[in-house]
């Protein structure tokens, strides 16, 4: 949360690794992810069907421990614009 950054241990969240081989693409990847998410949420709604079960798993990269079941639908306003 804003203002609490200093309370977080530097190793608490390491999706891009840590130490001398930490990911050099981290800034680019985070920017790209935000742009992709913004583009997708303009046109689609995402509803997670099993939100009570989502737990992170620390592997080479952080990932969900179990499958995420998600329902994706086009926004109503968008749907009327698209033929078929
Ligand atoms: C969501 C996207 C990405 C994730 C989750 C990710 C994650 C990682 C992780 C976990 C490592 C290993 C760090 C370590 O050994 O401690 C790594 C290394 C690396 N990543 Fe990424 N990465 C991403 C995107 C990118 C992009 C976009 C680039 C290049 C433009 C990139 C270039 C590299 C390179 C060159 C290394 C090796 C660094 C070294 O060994 O010195 N990555 N990345």
Question: Which terms summarize this structure?
Answer:
84 residues, alpha+beta, two-stranded antiparallel ribbon, 2 helices, 29% helix
Give a short overview.
The chain has helices at 26-43, 76-81, and strands at residues 44-48, 56-58, 62-64, 70-74.
Give structural notes:
The chain is an alpha+beta fold. Helix content is 29%, strand content 19%. The protein has two helices and four strands, in the order αββββα. The strands form two sheets. A two-stranded antiparallel sheet has the order 1-4. A two-stranded antiparallel ribbon has the order 2-3. Strand 2 (56-58) and strand 3 form a beta hairpin. The longest helix has 18 residues, at 26-43. The N and C termini lie far apart (43 Å). The model has no long low-confidence stretch (mean pLDDT 87). Bound molecules: protoporphyrin IX containing FE. Protoporphyrin IX containing FE is lined by residues 15-19, 21-25, 28-29, 60-61.
């Amino acid at each position: 949360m804003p203002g609490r950054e200093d309370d977080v241990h530097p190793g608490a969240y390491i999706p891009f690794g840590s130490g001398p081989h930490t990911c050099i693409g981290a800034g680019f990847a985070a920017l790209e992810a935000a742009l992709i998410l913004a583009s997708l949420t303009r046109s689609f709604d995402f509803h997670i069907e099993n939100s009570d079960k989502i737990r992170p798993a620390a592997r080479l990269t952080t990932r969900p421990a179990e499958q995420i079941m998600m329902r994706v639908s086009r926004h109503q306003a968008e749907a009327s614009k698209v033929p078929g």
